[in-house]
Structures are given as C-alpha cells and as structure tokens.
Design brief:
2 copies of one chain form a homodimer. Chain A is mostly beta strands and about 280 residues long. Chain A has 4 helices and 15 strands. Chains A and B meet through strand 5, strand 8, strand 12 and strand 15 of A and strand 5, strand 8, strand 12 and strand 15 of B. Chains A, B: This is Thioesterase family protein.
Chain lengths: ~280, ~280
C-alpha cells in the first residue's frame, strides 16, 4: 500500500521556485511567480515576498533549513508576475548568512540578509518575560475576510489566510480606531500548519498598525527585520502588533508571534512610512 | 583673522577612511584601521564597526548624509588592525539603499544594508507615545569608567565615552543584578556632540543587557538593526536597553536613544547569543 502524499498547501505552491543557471558558482538564481492573490492595493504583500526570499535561501543552504534573522530592505514595490531571486552565501557555520535579492524586470525590489540555522538544535531553555496576548477565542473575534466586498477586491491577500482580529482592534473599520497603536488577533493558514518559513509571512500579514491610529491607507515598508526564535507548535498563532514612535512621516511597527503552546516564536520590527 | 578649525574628535579620527580604487564603477572600496581602544574582550565593539560602515556609506552617497535604517549581520569577530569597507549602491532615491561589507584579511566580518536619507528634510510631526526614561541626574549615576582596573584592561572601549548607569542598572557589578533585563543610563562623547552617525555607536555601547539577568560575559551580536529617526539635539543622550525573550541560547536586545530635547531619536534591536 502506498501512502498518498497530500497536495502542497497554497502557500507552498505559490512560493515554488525553479533553479536557474547562475552567473558563477558563488551566486544561485531562482525564478518564481508572484501571484496576484497575495496582493493588497496592487502590490504584493511584503510578508509573502519575505517568505519567497526565505524559500530561496533554504534551497541554497538546505542543511540550515530555518530562518533565524532575516533583514530586508524594500527598495521598490513588487507586482503580480515573474520574479527572480538571487542568493550568495556570505559565511557558512552553525549560523549561515546569505545575501539575497528579489528582482522584477531586472530591477531589485527587495534586498536582504538572511541568517539560517537549525532551530531544532537549540537548547530547551526558555526565560521569556514577555507576556502572551490574552485574546477572546477566535469565534469571538472579527474575520478580516468578512470585510466589505469593495475592500476585498483591492486586498485579495485577506482571502489567503484566516485572521481574526480582537473586537478592540477593529474600531477603525467603523470609524472608531482606539488610538492606542495596537492590533491583536489570531492567524493561521487554512491548509497548512505554521513552520519557521511561514512566520516570515505572518510577521507582515496584519493591516498596518496605523489603522488603529485613525490613519488608514497603505504604509510602505522601508525595512523589516524578523527573528524566528523557535519552531512553532501546530495550531492558531497569536499576533500582537504595536507602534510607539510615529514621527517625521515614519513609524516603527513591532510584531510578536506567539504559538499555541504559549511560546514567543518570532519578533519583527519594521520601519514604514506613515500613510498620507 | 582666521578661524581655527578645531581638531577632529577622537571618534571621527578613528573612523577615518581612505578611498581605494574599486574593482568596477559600481563598487567603492575604503581602507581604515580598527583601533584597539574601541575593543572589549579582545574584539572591536559592534557599535564602532557599525559607525565605520555608516561613514563609508556617507562617503558613497554624500547627498544622503544620514542613516535611517541600518541592518547589519555580524559574521565574524573584528580585531585591532587594518580593515576594508566596500559599498555598492542598490537604489538611489529620497531613501538611498547601499549594501556594505567590512572585511579583515579578505574575510567578511560584517555585512550590512544601509538606507540613508536627509533627516533634516522630514516633517516636524512627532506623535511618539513611548515614554522617555526618567533617570537620576548624571552626577548621581555610576561612571562605567570607574570600573575596577582589571575590567578596564579588557575593555578599553569604556574609556572612549562617558557613560553613567543608573544605580539600579549596576547591581550586577556587586553580584546583585536586578533580574529585570533592563539597563538605563546617560551617554555622551567627551569631545563631540551627538549626530546621526554617532547614534550607530551609541546603540551598541552599553554592556549586554544579560548582565542585569546575572549572566555576565560576552554576548556576541548575530544581527543588529538600527533606525535613526531624527537629528539628535546637543548634550547627554539617555539610553534604555531591555530584553524580554531569552530562550534557546539567544536573546533580543532593544535599545532606545533619547536626546536632551526629549525626542526618541533612535531605536535598535539586536539578536545576540546568551553568554555561556
């Protein structure tokens, strides 16, 4: 009897890369396709792009399968269509660092430095003092996919995952943002458990935290650094996104990702532009 | 009558770079020297190295004089002696992004992505909700340069600047760390006012926050991202450094830098290894 392999989940299908010949041994090249389904406001979501870069890095250094620290600078908007990712190993070790670039039409869109390792090899010690968000259960939260059809048309991204924002995080949808600069909610993919690569997507999946400050609109990411600290347990993830320094037309956005076992599995911080 | 130009401050002398011929037009090369005076435990301080990379980037794109976001991955320890910095412009714009690498003996020690701009051109809007540290005045704090001679011999770095830690931040020096994971204090250079470049140094100038958790020892930086959000006012800077996720042999360290006018001028986060 053969065990049937289940079909790949949507995210993994959409992240699929084809190796190309590189210009030399030191540089590897991959071609992929950015699906319109991951777009929001016409651009492809930055978390999906980060996961694609992570996927290329993993293929480049398969003995170091997990992202540990990925720092990405967004130098141009990416749109639906073909994309190319190039990778160059900077240093190999227990922690292996790879420089990676995602380009479209020959122009860089994201340039990144990714440090990968094997998270399964870390010590079991957990001395986390950060406190997990205490959220109402998912069924008492608000599905982002229940947004008005007009919104969904410009943000097909929202239909790629299950996100449930806490009631106090969605005041902006009815003209009553809390003004705190805090969004909290649940996150999962419908057909796939979380893994370290998926956390690169999750850290930029929420609406901009500036929505909660009464500033709707696109908040372009300048720079995004994500630390992945552990392999997440199966089940719902909890996301907490906050800002404390909106100034000079920019803001920082911190995201914490907690897994179903109560572990702080990822932390990210981005610098973004305040929506006009 | 001629106005005498004051001699350059120590930091600026030590950051001096000499342009070299590049391998091609796209790549610029600079030679510098890492002075032993900036070392701690035999390695050169990561903040000084970040400032040297920033200095090379500024020379590469002089019309964008200020760091806005600098993400650096530390792939090897740097030691006293010659160093070379190479820079490559990834994209020019209001925000200009440059890839930079600092090498010694032909091997990379730090690889970085730096986004520079002109901070003087930002809007005046400040909506910061983070609260500045309330510290006892510098004269009621503890000078790190008053550390025991045995310590100073291994950390000449400490004599390059004036740092005054709050009394509650130095319990570790007498075997009574607070256990909170928080260090706060004052910082300035004796011969120079702060500027955006100097903030790259300041964000990694404090002892590792793990000292406050009763874990003395060197905490090697894996990755460090610094956002510089404003040109700092003259005078003392206030630093607040904290961690909330010590786990699996790694920890995150956040640093806030507040200027004398009460502005949150820089935020950094690093991923580092817990001292053994």
């Amino acid at each position: 009897m053969q065990t049937e392999t289940p079909p790949p989940a949507e995210l993994d299908r959409d992240l699929a890369l084809t190796p190309l010949d590189g210009p030399d041994e030191a540089v590897r090249r991959f071609s992929g396709h950015l699906p319109g389904g991951w777009s929001v406001g016409g651009g492809i979501n930055g978390g999906f792009l980060l996961a694609m870069i992570g996927s290329a890095v993993r293929d480049t250094v398969p003995d170091r399968p997990h992202p540990v620290a990925v720092a990405a600078t967004y130098v141009g908007a990416s749109t639906e269509g073909p994309a190319e990712v190039t990778t160059r190993v900077v240093r190999r070790g227990t922690l292996t660092t790879v420089a990676a670039e995602l380009a479209q039409d020959g122009a860089p869109r994201i340039t990144a430095l990714a440090t990968f390792s094997d998270l399964a090899g870390l010590t079991d010690e957990v001395g986390t003092t950060a406190v997990a968000p205490v959220l109402p259960p998912p069924e008492e939260c608000v599905r982002t996919s229940d947004a008005p059809p007009d919104f969904l048309r410009t943000a097909p991204l929202v239909e790629r995952f299950e996100m449930r924002l806490t009631p106090r995080s969605v005041g902006w949808a009815v003209g009553q943002p809390s003004g705190t600069g805090l969004l909290e909610g649940w996150f999962r993919l419908p057909d796939r458990e979380p893994d370290p690569l998926m956390l690169l997507l999750a850290c930029d999946a929420m609406p901009p935290v500036t929505f909660d400050l009464g500033r709707p609109g696109w908040a372009p990411t300048v720079q995004l650094t994500t630390h992945v600290r552990a392999v997440p347990a199966p089940g719902w993830l909890r996301l907490r996104q906050s800002t404390s320094n909106v100034a000079g037309g920019f803001f920082e956005e911190d995201c914490e990702i907690w897994d179903s076992a109560g572990r702080l599995v990822a932390q990210s911080r981005q610098l973004a532009r305040v929506p006009r």
